[in-house]
Amino acid sequence: QVHLEESGGGSAQAAGSLTLSCTASGDLCTRDMSWYRQAPGAYREFVARIDNFGQVTYADSVKARFTISQGEAGDTLYLQMNDLKPDDTATYYCKSYRIQKFGVYNGGCSLDVWGQGTQVTVSS
Q: What is the pLDDT averaged over residues 22-34?
């Protein structure tokens, strides 16, 4: 059973900092992990990704402010958030993938795995 659990959320003032963590239990089929966020009444949006080669990608809204990184074993994900803004207020989710199977058939490392989320609130 694969499980992702986020932690580190809380309240911060504008221009402050927070660091989020995501820990995986059970075996994921890839080191490719991402952060997403969702504000109340809004769609879930991409924040940052680190792929199997260590290449990182950021949404334009967080570029130069947030840094995604990964532990040596690949089962822990971090998001360092600096210069926080009120618009960063959202529930932050960790995402990776597990193998999808259809009986004897292997659908590949393609089935999304999500954590429960951690709340980040930034006040002006």
A: 93
